[in-house]
Amino acid sequence: MNLEELLHKRSEWLKGTGPKSDIVVSSRVRLARNIDKFPFFNWAQPKQKEGILALVKDAALKSKFLKKTMFLQMKDLSEIDRQFLVERHLTSPEHVIDPQYKAVLIDDQEIASIMINEEDHVRLQILQSGFNIIEAWRMADEIDTDLGTRLPYAFSDRWGYLTACPTNTGTGLRASIMLHLPALVMTNQIGKVFQAISKLGLTMRGFYGEGTEAVGNFFQVSNQVTLGRSENDLIEKIGSIVDKLVQREESTRNILMTKNKDEISDKIWRAYGTLKSARIITSSETIKLLSVIRLGVNLGVVTGINGTQINELFMLTQPAHLQKIEGKILNPNQRDYKRADIIREKLKG
Amino acid sequence: MQCDICHKEAATVHLTEIINNKVTKLHLCENCAREKSAEMEEHFGLADLLSGLADLVPVTTKKGKSPSLNTGADIDVGIKCPSCSFTFQKFRKIGRLGCPNCYDAFRSQLSPLLRKIHGYDRHTGKIPNKKEVVKDATVLLGDLKARLTKAIEHEEFEEAARLRDQIRSIEKKTKPEKNEVKSNNKKGKK
Ligand SMILES: [Zn+2]
Ligand SMILES: [Zn+2]
């Protein structure tokens, strides 16, 4: 498997098949681990960084859970390829800065990935489609337990898994659920949701866009606390809160469809029309319009296009994906042309 | 430099945020940084905030004044990790620790900080599947049981219930062959 194959493949999490996938885009679990007796990555000597890389690579490749994997050293990848991995959520933006001694291991379904030498020596990530956080944790747990038989993790009875940043210590677990909440935004309920979430030991942020403005109404909810609660507790808690959010979004969508069906339909069809005819389109406008169409598909207003295709368009219209499809570097203006071309092609039906 | 949010106060907290794969620098005054702190945990790492908010790390000051950022002479924040020679001063500045042993070296300083961040300062989750750690689990169990007794004495029932669950889960993990038949896909297999 190589990167070019990934380009023409659909990541598992994009299939849009999981439970509640009309509202929950993806569920992710990340575990932070470090190797005992080594400094944390940022302060390790080059020889130590090399040693950690070899150690973790070896341990991971021996795992029975990671039979079909691709091992990529960041230094061997072009700028666009690294960005491509970030866009596919296979690695973090931090991990591609300063690529020396860094690597990522990706399984062929793009569900599991292991970042080696990020801020922590090991960051294992499981990414599932839809509302599947328990399954994501179960898989992460299984792979982590297996890796732990070959890797001497830094662990203290008192503070659990020791991480470079004390905000991750303990379980080292970050569960993140990405939600599409257009109805809660349209009805001005989202502010209250933000407030409630922060009181519950969780954080919520717009997924696209900057600051508090959430382009396309995509939000990511994550646990804030990692210490003093068991993994199962943390997963259960975020799961039950997200469940409430999903119910709220669902009931609000129903109300909107009963009371404002014509206005909603109009909005959705206009978005569809724009995307089908645009010749030049920015990434931000694309996200906004695709978000509206995604709602349209899930409300049954738009037919002839499915959730998987919408998810695919979200993925393919990102800068590095566009440039990989085109096979050359494109400046932002050129990308806006290429983006519109691809969208028209995919929506031709 | 002025605060990016209120444009009034001087910016004393400097943050790097990565949004949408773009690195953004934010310069905030203390008040705005505090307000922003809830939403930024995930990506800033609360630690970056430490550089500006000295009181988030309760430093034991002998002279009863808050340590100044410039002197670097404060004895208590000058503690060094014997393994990696990271100083607590450096941790306060950059919000990251040097090596796993720093946790031990800065134990008394970190404990209140961790409590502040997480609400707890003791791990209750997964334990690595290693023999020597299993041994440590007996120590941990003794400790947990003592805390359970105390919690019951003080009528802290929520805490007591939590401790009880934790004790059970550790007991289960340390002698798995006794009570349970494990399926192939479940965790805990040896
Ligand atoms: Zn301000
Ligand atoms: Zn150290």
Describe this structure in words.
The complex is a heterodimer of chains A (349) and B (190). Chain A is an alpha+beta fold. Chain A has 2 domains: 3-253, Glutamine synthetase/guanido kinase, catalytic domain (Creatine Kinase, Chain A, domain 2, 2-Layer Sandwich), CATH 3.30.590; 260-346, no CATH class. In chain A, 45% of the residues lie in helices and 16% in strands. Chain A contains 12 helices and 10 strands. Chain A has helices spanning 3-7, 46-61, 79-87, 133-148, 182-186, 190-199, 231-259, 261-277, 283-298, 307-316, 319-326, 332-347; strands spanning 24-33, 69-73, 103-107, 112-116, 122-129, 155-156, 160-161, 173-180, 202-206, 218-223. In chain A, strands 2-3-4-5-1-8-10-9 form an 8-stranded antiparallel sheet. The two termini of chain A are 30 Å apart. In chain A, 51% of the residues are buried. Helices cover 47% and strands 7% of the residues of chain B. The radius of gyration of chain B is 21 Å and the shape is elongated. The longest helix of chain B has 23 residues, at 131-153. Chain B has helices spanning 30-50, 88-94, 102-105, 107-118, 131-153, 157-174, 176-179; strands spanning 13-19, 22-28. A two-stranded antiparallel sheet of chain B has the order 1-2. At the A-B interface, helix 3, helix 4, strand 6, strand 7 and strand 8 of A face helix 1, helix 4, helix 5 and helix 6 of B. Bound molecules: zinc ion (2 copies). One zinc ion is lined by residues 3, 5-6, 9, 28-29, 31-32 of chain B.
Label this structure with key terms.
A: 349 residues, alpha+beta, Creatine Kinase, Chain A, domain 2, two-stranded antiparallel sheet, 10 strands, globular, B: 190 residues, mainly alpha, 2 strands, elongated, disordered C terminus
CATH architectural designation of the largest domain in chain A:
2-Layer Sandwich
| CATH fourth-tier homologous superfamily of the largest domain in chain A | Glutamine synthetase/guanido kinase, catalytic domain
> Structural class of chain A, please?
alpha+beta
Number of strands of chain B: 2
Measured by DSSP, the beta-strand proportion of chain A falls in: 15-25%
Based on CA atoms alone, the radius of gyration of chain B comes out at 21 Å
The biggest beta sheet of chain B, please? 2 strands, antiparallel
Identify the overall geometry of chain B. Answer: elongated
Q: What's the rounded overall pLDDT mean of chain B?
A: 67
Beta-strand segment tally of chain A:
10
> H/E order of the elements of chain B?
EEHHHHHHH
Largest sheet of chain A: 8 strands, antiparallel
Distance between the termini of chain B: 58 Å
